[in-house]
Specification:
This protein folds into two domains: 50-149, Periplasmic binding protein-like II (D-Maltodextrin-Binding Protein, domain 2); 174-439, no CATH class. α6 packs parallel to α11 (299-327), α6 (174-208) packs antiparallel against α14 and α11 runs antiparallel to α12 (332-358). It is mainly alpha-helical. A four-stranded mixed β-sheet has the order 2-1-3-4, covered by helices on one side. The chain has helices at residues 2-16, 19-45, 116-139, 143-155, 163-168, 174-208, 211-215, 221-257, 260-267, 280-295, 299-327, 332-358, 363-370, 375-382, 393-421, 431-439; strands spanning 50-55, 71-76, 91-94, 107-110.
Length: 440
């Protein structure tokens, strides 16, 4: 046991002291947040008002297209498609000459591609206007009354709640739970690949440099393998905890910057444009709704399950990656042929996860949450929806027990390959050869 602890200490300290580890640990969350912030900033900033000339010879729109923040409409009789840009228009909207009762679609012509926001807005405006005109004509109803009814109906929302929400007076947001499930499951998917490959490369490096020959003269191959697996796993857990602290700090800083006093101060600052950004009340309502949804998530359960499934999934797959690293030499083809059966279940897990997020109670999601090969990814996509609501306690317990049992089995299996493969050089491994090593 003391020898395993020494190997764990060596693997852990040799990696956390590297400048690359320190830089990647600190810079990764900062770069991620910066990319999201910059992308959002430029996306919002580049939403400009497009001027669209509308040619409607049949009068199907009845000159009732309402201009908005994204698009301004001007009705004209000039259908010349060659000079509308010279008149200051971004695009030309041509209504069908024969009317909407016959064949023909609206055509939106532009010099270059319009933004997605403008294109979607034009399509929505045309559809809404045509619908209102037809209802008004057929039912003899004032179009203004139609718009008023639609606004009232559109403001009504169906809020999804569980029985537990009714009991404690809270609420839950399906979209927030979906986002948390996707994020945690995808993060485990990445970490399994990153740290699993790190274990395999470490074993291959020691084998290639003949360091393993010296080490196994003092410790057993199983002790060397377990020390390396646990040491690198501790590195991953340390990195994850640091990321949590950094992201929490960034989140607090951003929430402080977006407080009502700060928003009001920016809006009332000298030179601030009138109507700049969202209305303060709308922004605060959106922030309050998000805060309420996040507060409804059982964070102790989510974080606890994440740590368990990260460690359990890592230990389950790291043993297999270590076995592959001990069996192969430096030939990339050998590495690829032996790692494919290991990486395939991980990829299958992420595919099932995408479907299970949309339907967390499906049979596929349930079985994939129990099977150890896919449970670290799929189960984490379901946990944010509620335990024991969406995920029964017996199902979660069975999944955890099978993952622990799977770890014991893969460790035993990999140890039998590792003890022989770590000292084998120059011979190309085959599946038949690996079966012989396991049976010894």
């Amino acid at each position: 046991m003391n020898k395993i602890l020494l190997i764990i200490q060596r693997e852990y300290l040799s990696r956390v002291r590297k400048k690359s580890f320190i830089l990647s640990t600190i810079l990764t969350p900062l770069v991620l947040v910066s990319i999201i912030a910059v992308t959002t900033f430029f996306t919002v900033r580049n939403i400009r008002n497009e001027k669209v000339a509308v040619v409607d010879p049949a009068g199907v729109l009845q000159q009732k297209l309402e201009s908005g923040k994204k698009v301004t409409y001007t009705f004209t009789t000039d259908a010349d498609t060659s000079n509308f840009t010279e008149k200051g228009f971004s695009a030309l909207l041509l209504a069908p000459q024969a009317g909407i009762n016959k064949t023909g679609d609206f055509q939106l012509i532009s010099e270059s591609s319009l933004s997605r926001f403008a294109h979607d807005q034009v399509g929505n405006d045309v559809s809404r206007t045509l619908e209102n005109n037809m209802i008004s004509r057929e039912l003899k109803v004032d179009p203004a009354r139609i718009d008023s009814i639609k606004k009232i109906a559109g403001a009504i929302k169906v809020q999804q709640m569980k029985k537990s929400d009714l009991a404690n007076g809270g609420s839950s947001s399906f979209s927030v739970q979906m986002g948390i499930g996707y994020l945690t499951a995808f993060l485990i998917y990445l970490l399994l690949f990153i740290y699993g490959m790190m274990v395999m490369r470490g074993v291959m490096e020691e084998k290639t440099n003949r360091i393993a020959e010296v080490i196994v003269s003092s410790v057993r191959p199983f002790q060397l393998m377990m020390g390396k697996i646990v040491g690198i796993g501790a590195v991953g857990l340390t990195q994850f905890l640091i990321w949590i602290v950094l992201l929490a700090g960034i989140g607090l800083a951003v929430s402080g910057a977006a407080s009502p006093d700060v928003i009001e101060g920016v809006k009332n600052a000298p030179g601030a444009a009138p109507g700049m950004g969202m209305k303060n009340t709308e922004a605060m309502e959106a922030m309050n709704a998000l805060a309420t949804s996040l507060a409804s998530v059982n964070w102790p359960v989510v974080i606890g399950c994440f740590i368990f499934y990260f460690l359990g999934g890592y230990l389950f797959y790291a043993a297999l990656f270590a076995a592959v690293g001990s069996a192969v030499n430096e030939d990339p083809q050998d590495v690829q042929s032996l790692t494919l059966p290991i990486t395939l279940p991980i990829v299958v897990g992420i595919i099932i996860m995408i479907n299970s997020i949309n339907d967390p109670n499906s049979s596929m999601a349930t079985w994939a949450s129990i099977i150890p090969f896919t449970s670290p990814i799929v189960m984490m996509s379901r946990v944010p929806f509620g335990v024991p609501g969406t995920v029964p306690l017996w199902e979660l317990a069975l999944s955890m027990l099978l993952l622990l049992g799977g770890f014991v089995f893969t460790t035993w299996l990999s140890a039998r390959i590792y003890r022989t493969g770590i000292l084998m050089y120059g011979k190309k491994p085959t599946w038949k050869e690996l079966m012989k090593w396991i049976g010894r």
